[in-house]
Amino acid sequence: MEQKITIKDVAELAGVSKSTVSRYLNNGYISVEKQARVRQAIEQTGFQSNFFAKRLKTRESKLIGIVLPRMDSVTVGKLLAGITRILEPEGYQSILLVSQLSAEKELENMQKLRQQGVDAILVDSVGITAEHVQRAQEWSLPIVYLGQQNPAVHCLKMDDAAAGHRMGVYLRQMGHKHAVFAGVTEHDEAVGIERKQGFLAGFCEDRTDARVDFVETGFDFLSAYNQAEEIRKLAPSVVVGATDNISLGILRYFHERGIDVPREISVVGFGGYEVGAVVYPALTTVSFDYELMGMKAASYLLYLLQDKRETPNLDMPLTFVERESVRNLQEDYVQGQAVSMSVMA
């Protein structure tokens, strides 16, 4: 029976410690001279006890690390479906880690994935910091950040400012002058800043009588629900949820208290979640294609891994969906008015 070669055998042959071999297998730092000795010992012994050793020979583990901010999100399933649709036919598998909306945990998870020998990392980021940029520039493996933008790194995101602007223009055209923007902290630059600023520009442009109040919520349904009373006290004609999830929490609160949407107050969101089409009234929203985003992110990673010359198309479409949750204040309100849909390229 053939004897199994161990890390200890490799270390003894290379004249180094087991921890040095382990660091080499985990892509950690050791001197160039020791790298050569460990590599030669691995080749001589045929050591291949796990995928790290395989990675030394093929320079790929066929593993992609994915860092998500949370799992209890409507968008996560669609995003992962898109990623899997592209990666699986290429023979890749994914390792998922969750940061719980913590930038520190996000960075920690990236380090863990690197140590596990993944070929590349996708990060659905809560915010790209200087340390995120440093890792992308110094690490040898490709990293693609989703949901945030920074010119110093590889990233892919929706045009949040354009989405916000489109919604602001629409509500202005519907005769609304006082809105509450129910949004998240500005630590999330895409949703907390860009989407809000885009809305402000579209809603308030060339109007001195337009007013927008801001109420901070979390991303989750319950935190939005708990802030709905504060929103109602501000007496806006429309509530703009930074995500559909926020808007659905507010809709639920209004429904429980007999507040007629949209006759008494209008509600809109961003995201295009399927549940927004079946609640009453159906939610007007800007729809994002998260499955397509996952597919494009995975294609981008493969492009970086395979060193192809042709850059993939990273443009993300926005679709404006007009439903029943907005009242046109320039017309008499009619119960059960017709529902229309329009598309924005």
Q: Would you identify the regions where 5 or more consecutive residues have pLDDT less than 50?
A: 338-345
Total strands: the figure is: 11
- Global mean pLDDT: 88
Reported for the largest beta sheet, the result is: 6 strands, mixed
Shape: elongated
Name the CATH superfamily classification of the largest domain.
Response regulator
Domains (count)? 3
- Tell me, what is the CATH class of the largest domain? Alpha Beta
What sequence of helices (H) and strands (E) makes up the elements? HHHHEHEHEHEEHEHEHEHEEHE
**Number of DSSP helices?**
12
Q: Which class of secondary structure composition applies to the elements?
A: alpha/beta
Distance between the termini: 65 Å
Strand content: 15-25%
At CATH level 3, the topology of the largest domain is Rossmann fold
The Rg value, from CA coordinates, equals 25 Å
Helix-residue proportion: 40-55%
CATH architecture of the largest domain: 3-Layer(aba) Sandwich
Strand arrangement in the largest pleated sheet: 7-6-8-9-10-11
